[in-house]
Amino acid sequence: MVSKMNKILGFIERVLPIRRIIVHSILMVDPHFKFYRTVKSKENLKIGKNSVVSYMAHLDLTASITIGEDCMITDGVRIYTHSHYLLNKRDFSLKKEGKAVKPNPIVIEDNVIIYSNAMIMPSVKRIHKGCMILSGAILTRSTTAPYQIWGGNPAKLIKIKEV
Known about the structure:
By secondary structure, the protein is mostly beta strands. It has one helix and 19 strands.
């Protein structure tokens, strides 16, 4: 199992310019998974053990993404970690003091499930433990407590799971 993991990590390092991905124990990555990054940072993705990143998931690594243990990110999920500076309503200048993008790191705690085609927007800072983001949801703000179910466009709190 360890040699297979080393082969996968070696392949990722050869194909992508990302040199340091912190991985614990088991990482299952679909062959169609895409890393997307716009800046040269090497430590922007941390994935906990037994987490699954599935088919055609799109992770923007402009800022850091931390995924906890036992998480499932299913097919077509998009996680964005940057937005653009807009100085005012009339001037569409994307640069503020030499910077074009505003990085927004995100933390996904343990046991989170993000179902297919959900979008996590850059305004989200944290998805709490045990939360579920339903299919097609567009999450525009952080979850407020553990064990919540969010869905819709924009995503709203639907239910709190019983523990």
